[in-house]
Amino acid sequence: MIDETSVDELILAERILPALQGIRAELGCSLGDAVDEFERRYDRLRAERPNDFALAPEEYGRNIYT
């Protein structure tokens, strides 16, 4: 099982799909709920650790389509 810290590190590394998979495994939730949780964690990380992101907000997830 992936813990919250690992998911956060995946988010920081722009590993969006593995982060979503980790959230689903961690919470046992649907994909839609995992996307909502991802957005909450992403927003929290942007606020708490902005310098840990390699990409600007407008570039993050640019090639991910949902």
Features:
mainly alpha; 0% strand; globular
Description of the molecule:
With 66 residues, the protein is mostly helical. Helices cover 59% and strands 0% of the residues. The protein is built from three helices and no strands. It is globular. The mean pLDDT is 90.
How much strand content do the residues show?
A: under 5%
Unreliable spans are none
Q: Helix count? A: 3
Rg over CA atoms, rounded to whole Å, is 11 Å
**What characterizes the major β-sheet?**
none
**Topology pattern, helix = H, strand = E:** HHH
CA-based shape = globular
Helix content: 55-70%
* N/C terminus separation: 25 Å
Q: How many DSSP-defined strands?
A: 0
Average pLDDT metric: 90
Derived from helix and strand composition plus strand pairing, the structural class reads mainly alpha
Secondary-structure blueprint of this entry?
Elements: H1 4-12, H2 16-27, H3 31-48
Helix pairs in contact: 1-2, 2-3
Structure summary:
With 66 residues, the chain is mainly α.
